[in-house]
Amino acid sequence: MNNFSSNVNIQSSGCGILWNNSFDEVSIKLIVEMKAIEIIIQAMKTFESHQNIQKKGCGSLWNIGVNNYEYQTKIRELKGIEIVVQIMKKFPENEEIQYFGCGTLWVLSFNNEENKNLIKNLGAFELIKNLETNFPNYQELHKLANNSLKILK
């Protein structure tokens, strides 16, 4: 992905591949060692209007951040939380981005006070709180939003 950082199709496919392969600890460790967190966040910044990259980027960061304080912190330090909140605000009508963005913020806030405080300071608490109203028929999103709000309180 680094060699083709300006190619939207390669970045989208790359984020998708990283997302699909980040479901177990061994794979996630290898992905992180390959500097994929940096690559994902850069792709999300470079192609901020490309909704598919944003969804796949959030999915990848969600998987990488699950139950790993070190990776959660690294994502924060690389401004990944800001990117996720920014894209949730940019695409308020896109239920997939809202779902995967909310899920990413949920796992990044779990047992990580600094991340939790940053997420709240960026206004994401209100953003998440409004998801149930904005998407009244999306039950899975409601569950995820409620779990996120419990952690962020």
TrEMBL record:
InterPro entries: ARM-like, ARM-type_fold, Armadillo. The keyword Repeat applies. PROSITE patterns: ARM_REPEAT. Gene3D superfamilies: Leucine-rich Repeat Variant (1.25.10.10). Signal peptide: none annotated. This is Protein aardvark. ARM repeats lie at residues 79-123. Keywords: Repeat.
